[in-house]
UniProtKB/TrEMBL annotation:
<feature type="domain" description="Aminotransferase class I/classII large">
    <location>
        <begin position="37"/>
        <end position="381"/>
    </location>
</feature>
<comment type="similarity">
    <text>Belongs to the class-I pyridoxal-phosphate-dependent aminotransferase family.</text>
</comment>
<dbReference type="GO" id="GO:0008483">
    <property type="term" value="F:transaminase activity"/>
</dbReference>
<dbReference type="InterPro" id="IPR015424">
    <property type="entry name" value="PyrdxlP-dep_Trfase"/>
</dbReference>
<keyword id="KW-0808">Transferase</keyword>
<dbReference type="InterPro" id="IPR004838">
    <property type="entry name" value="NHTrfase_class1_PyrdxlP-BS"/>
</dbReference>
<dbReference type="InterPro" id="IPR004839">
    <property type="entry name" value="Aminotransferase_I/II_large"/>
</dbReference>
<dbReference type="Pfam" id="PF00155">
    <property type="entry name" value="Aminotran_1_2"/>
</dbReference>
<dbReference type="InterPro" id="IPR050596">
    <property type="entry name" value="AspAT/PAT-like"/>
</dbReference>
<keyword id="KW-0032">Aminotransferase</keyword>
<dbReference type="InterPro" id="IPR015421">
    <property type="entry name" value="PyrdxlP-dep_Trfase_major"/>
</dbReference>
<protein>
    <recommendedName>
        <fullName>Aminotransferase</fullName>
        <ecNumber>2.6.1.-</ecNumber>
    </recommendedName>
</protein>
<keyword id="KW-0663">Pyridoxal phosphate</keyword>
């Protein structure tokens, strides 16, 4: 028996990221324009970094509150009051070591060996992989696509529910499709969860990256305090803090101790000086978010315009998030195509195969970058499409 054969089956089965595989292939290429990862090109703004640096200089390097320092949990309450019109107590927030950590803890709290968890696909792959590592069975329900864009058939979700189903994972606005649930769809999903006694993990990380009027619809608009919903989120996207690895869970105050215990036995809390930066992000960062959303909106329109003119790219203009999920006429293997695009167009994209059922024929382009780079990348891609 080899060393690897002595590990848990679930650990051995954890898939390699289809995105990282392409990144590793092309990350050192000179002049490559990297549009494969889910992040922008702006560094964390100074008002956030300076607050963290002050905390570090002040000696905030000791063990701290497991569930997050009170100042940060209070700032989260203020954030939700401003953007969602809801009043929450600080006891309803748990600070985590990234949005991914928040998702892992949420899964650990609800689902385990043999339990089924439903998610909407194409999807950011980490949820399904994390559920699998926990011993649960991820069950994809594919979004529908037509000339009217991406949509969610709630009847398909209901048909996937079995006696072993424990939760629904709903990411809206969606990575990678940009699909954004309207209030009616959210209500139908919540009604189903109530009827079947299911939990919902609501990943609304891109709520403010919405290209309609104001933020995207949220389960918070329709939920009651007793609904079985865990909201997972991250500081990564809104405040250009992807490398910081700080996130949070919005939960019922009755669950605080459970999640504090899970924090204790995972990362034992987020560094206090980093939390000081997160406080500054929440309290001082609304203007920065607005600038980012405006910038991404212009970038979306630029890329869609150039690729649309090729006559070979097929896509729905995304309603939210900052990705273009598109097909190319004649392309059948998106993984092979992503490597070929690196080699021959010097542009980094994520293959649709990385995003599960329904995504195989697509490529994902992150357009959250400055316009001159995006224009050059789009023209390179347009040229490459002529070879397909």
């Amino acid at each position: 028996m080899t060393l690897i054969e002595t590990l848990r089956t679930e650990a051995r089965a954890a898939p390699e990221s289809g995105i990282v595989a392409v990144v590793n292939h092309g990350r050192l290429r000179e002049g490559l324009i990297p549009l494969w990862a889910g992040e922008g090109d702006l560094p964390t703004p100074a008002f956030i970094s300076d607050a963290a640096a002050k905390g570090l200089a002040d000696g905030e390097t000791f063990y701290t509150w497991q569930r997050g320092i009170p100042a940060l949990r209070q700032a989260l309450a203020r954030y939700y009051a401003r953007h969602f019109g809801k009043t929450f107590a600080e006891e309803e927030f748990i600070v985590t070591g990234s949005g991914m950590h928040a998702i892992q803890l949420a899964i650990d709290a609800i689902a385990g060996s043999g339990d089924e968890v439903i998610y909407l696909s194409p999807a950011w792959p980490n949820f399904a992989a994390a559920a699998g590592v926990a011993g649960a069975v991820p069950v994809p329900v594919t979004l529908d696509q037509s000339g009217n864009g991406w949509s969610c058939d709630v009847d398909k979700i209901a048909a996937a529910v079995t006696p072993r189903t424990k939760l629904l994972f709903i990411n809206t606005p969606s990575n990678p499709t940009g699909w954004t649930a309207d209030r009616e769809t959210l209500q139908a999903i919540l009604d189903l969860a109530r009827q079947k006694g299911l939990w919902i993990i609501a990943d609304e990380i891109y709520s403010l990256f919405h290209y309609g009027h104001g933020r995207a619809p949220s389960f918070l608009d329709i939920a009651t305090p007793e609904d079985r919903i865990l909201f997972v989120n991250s500081f990564s996207k809104n405040w250009a803090m992807t490398g910081w690895r700080v996130g949070w869970i919005k939960t019922h105050p009755a669950l605080q101790q459970v999640f504090e215990n899970l924090i204790q036995y995972s990362n034992s809390g987020v560094a206090q000086f980093m939390q000081r930066g997160a406080v500054a992000a929440l309290d001082e960062g609304d203007g920065f978010i607005a600038e980012q959303v405006e910038r991404a909106h212009a970038a979306r329109d630029l890329v869609c315009g150039i690729l649309g003119e090729t006559g070979k790219a097929r896509f729905t203009v995304p309603q939210g998030a900052f990705y273009l999920f598109f097909r190319v006429d004649g392309l059948t293997d998106s993984r092979k195509a992503a490597f070929d695009i690196v080699d021959n167009a010097n542009v980094g994209l994520a293959p649709g195969t990385a995003f599960g059922p329904g995504g195989e024929a697509f490529l994902r382009l992150c357009f959250h970058r400055r316009l001159d780079q995006l224009e050059e990348a789009a023209h390179r891609l347009a040229k490459w499409m002529k070879t397909v």
